[in-house]
C-alpha cells in the first residue's frame, strides 16, 4: 500500500516517509482554509495572505500528525520494541512495529501516547489562540484556533474503541489484561472497529440524504476504511502468530531449475525450459552467482532470430527480492512480498544461489500454518 512513498528523513532515529496521498491532503486543507475558513473568520485580507496562512497551517497540521506517530514510536522503543518506519498518508499516519507489545501495559501506553500528544497540541493551540486574540493578527489567531480544534477532534476520534484506531488498541490491551488472551483481545477490538465503521457509514449517508452535506461522503469513506483495516488487523495478527518462527529456509525450493545466463535463449528453451515445468527461473552465472530472473513471458516476446543471438542474462530482469536462508518469512512479506506469479525471491548464501521462493511457496506456508501443519523444506 505504501510502496510509492517519499523519504522525509529521520526523526528520533526513525525513518519517516510520506505517501503521495499526503500531497492531496495538503492541497485540500490549504484550499479549504484559504477559500472558506479564513475569509469567514477574518474578512478583508488579500488572497495571497489567506493562501500563505492556509499553507503554513496545513503544514503544521501534518507536523502534528507526525508528532502523534513519533510518540507511538518512542513509547514502543521504551518497551523494547523495534520501530521499522513511520508513514504519513491520506487518513493520518502509520507506525510500523516489529512484533507485538510484550504486555497489556505496554500495549495500553503505546496506544494512548499518540492521542495524548494530539490532545496536548490541540489544547495548546486553542488555548494560545484564546490568549492571542486581540494581540496577534486575526489570520494567525484563526489558523492557530483551527489547528488546536482539529487536533482536539483528532485526539478524541482516535480514542473511539475500535481497531485500527488507537482506542481500539486501548480496548485490546484491557481485554488482553482481563482474559490473558491477546488473540481474543485483538478479535474483540477488530469486531468493535467493524461495528464502528458501519455506524460511521450510516451517519455519513444520513448526513448526505437528510442534510444535503457532502461532508458525509468523507465520514462514509472513513467508516469504509475502518471496516477494511479492522479485518486486515485480524489477518495480520493471525499471520504473525502462524508464521512467527518460520524462516525462508523452511519454505524455499533448495534445488530450483536455473537458467544459465551464458546460454542463448534458443538453447535454454530447447534444452531446459520445457522440461522444468516452471514459468519463472533464476538466472545464474557460470560459477553459480545469481544474475537475475527470467520468465517464459519475457522470452516469448523475442522473435525467433533474437532468441538465436540473445543470451538469457540479457533477456531477463534484475531480481526484485533477495533473501538469506535465515531471514524470517514475516520480514520477507513486510518488504512488499510477491505480487504475482512472475515474481521470484532469490535466496543467496555466501554469494551463490541457495534456493528460490515463489508465490506458491508463500501460499503453501500460509495454508499449512492455518492448518497447524509444519512447513518443511521442499
Descriptive overview:
The chain crosses the membrane at residues 20-42, 48-67, 109-131, 138-160, 208-230. The protein is an alpha/beta fold and 378 residues long. The protein folds into 2 domains: 5-159, no CATH class; 248-370, CBS-domain. It is 60% helix and 15% strand. It has helices at residues 21-41, 47-78, 104-132, 138-158, 166-179, 182-211, 215-243, 248-251, 265-276, 296-300, 304-309, 312-315, 329-334, 359-370; strands spanning 5-11, 14-19, 82-89, 92-98, 259-260, 280-284, 290-295, 321-323, 344-349, 352-358. Helix 2 (47-78) runs antiparallel to helix 3 (104-132) and helix 5 packs antiparallel against helix 6. The chain is elongated and about 85 Å long. The model has no long low-confidence stretch (mean pLDDT 87).
Q: Helix content range of the residues, please?
A: 55-70%
Work out the count of structural domains: 2
Largest sheet: 4 strands, mixed
Structural class: alpha/beta
Distance between the termini: 31 Å
Strand order of the largest sheet: 1-2-3-4
> pLDDT below 50 for ≥5 consecutive residues: which ranges?
none
Overall pLDDT level: 87
Alpha carbon gyration radius: 26 Å
Oligomer: single chain
What proportion strand?
Answer: 15-25%
Q: Count the strands?
A: 10
Query: Number of helical segments?
Result: 14
Could you state the order of secondary-structure elements as H and E? EEHHEEHHHHHHEHEEHHHEHEEH
Question: How would you sum up the global shape?
Answer: elongated
How is this structure best summarized?
By secondary structure, the protein is α/β, with parallel strands linked by helices. It has helices at 21-41, 47-78, 104-132, 138-158, 166-179, 182-211, 215-243, 248-251, 265-276, 296-300, 304-309, 312-315, 329-334, 359-370, and strands at 5-11, 14-19, 82-89, 92-98, 259-260, 280-284, 290-295, 321-323, 344-349, 352-358.
Amino acid at each position: 500500500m505504501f510502496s510509492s512513498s517519499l523519504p522525509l528523513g529521520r526523526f528520533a532515529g526513525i525513518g519517516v516517509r510520506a505517501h503521495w496521498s499526503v500531497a492531496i491532503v495538503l492541497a485540500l486543507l490549504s484550499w479549504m482554509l484559504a477559500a472558506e475558513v479564513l475569509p469567514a473568520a477574518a474578512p478583508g485580507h488579500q488572497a495571497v495572505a489567506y493562501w500563505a496562512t492556509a499553507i503554513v497551517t496545513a503544514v503544521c497540521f501534518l507536523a502534528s500528525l507526525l508528532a502523534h506517530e513519533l510518540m507511538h514510536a518512542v513509547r514502543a522503543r521504551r518497551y523494547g520494541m523495534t520501530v521499522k518506519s513511520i508513514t504519513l498518508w491520506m487518513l493520518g499516519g502509520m507506525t510500523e512495529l516489529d512484533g507485538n507489545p510484550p504486555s497489556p501495559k505496554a500495549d495500553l501506553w503505546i496506544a494512548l501516547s499518540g492521542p495524548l500528544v494530539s490532545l496536548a497540541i490541540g489544547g495548546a493551540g486553542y488555548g494560545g489562540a484564546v490568549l492571542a486574540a486581540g494581540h496577534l493578527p486575526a489570520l494567525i489567531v484563526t489558523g492557530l484556533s483551527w489547528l488546536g480544534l482539529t487536533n482536539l477532534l483528532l485526539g478524541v476520534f482516535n480514542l473511539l474503541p475500535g481497531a485500527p484506531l488507537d482506542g481500539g488498541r486501548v480496548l485490546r490491551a484491557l481485554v488482553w489484561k482481563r482474559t490473558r488472551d491477546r488473540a481474543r483481545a485483538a478479535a474483540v477490538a477488530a469486531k468493535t472497529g467493524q461495528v464502528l465503521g458501519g455506524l460511521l457509514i450510516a451517519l455519513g449517508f444520513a448526513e448526505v440524504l437528510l442534510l444535503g452535506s457532502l461532508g458525509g461522503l468523507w465520514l462514509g469513506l472513513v467508516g469504509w476504511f475502518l471496516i477494511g483495516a479492522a479485518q486486515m488487523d485480524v489477518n495480520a495478527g493471525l499471520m504473525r502468530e502462524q508464521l512467527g518462527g518460520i524462516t525462508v529456509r523452511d519454505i524455499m525450493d533448495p534445488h530450483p531449475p536455473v537458467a544459465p545466463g551464458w546460454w542463448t535463449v534458443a538453447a535454454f528453451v530447447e534444452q531446459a525450459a520445457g522440461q522444468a515445468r516452471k514459468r519463472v527461473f533464476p538466472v545464474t552465472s557460470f560459477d553459480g552467482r545469481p544474475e537475475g530472473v527470467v520468465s517464459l513471458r519475457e522470452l516469448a516476446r523475442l522473435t525467433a532470430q533474437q532468441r538465436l543471438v540473445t543470451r538469457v542474462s540479457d533477456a531477463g530482469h534484475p531480481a526484485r527480492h533477495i533473501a538469506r536462508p535465515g531471514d524470517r518469512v514475516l520480514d520477507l512479506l513486510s518488504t512488499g512480498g510477491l505480487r504475482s506469479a512472475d515474481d521470484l525471491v532469490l535466496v543467496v548464501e555466501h554469494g551463490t544461489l541457495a534456493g528460490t521462493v515463489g508465490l506458491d511457496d508463500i501460499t503453501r506456508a500460509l495454508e499449512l500454518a492455518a492448518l497447524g501443519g509444519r512447513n518443511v523444506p521442499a
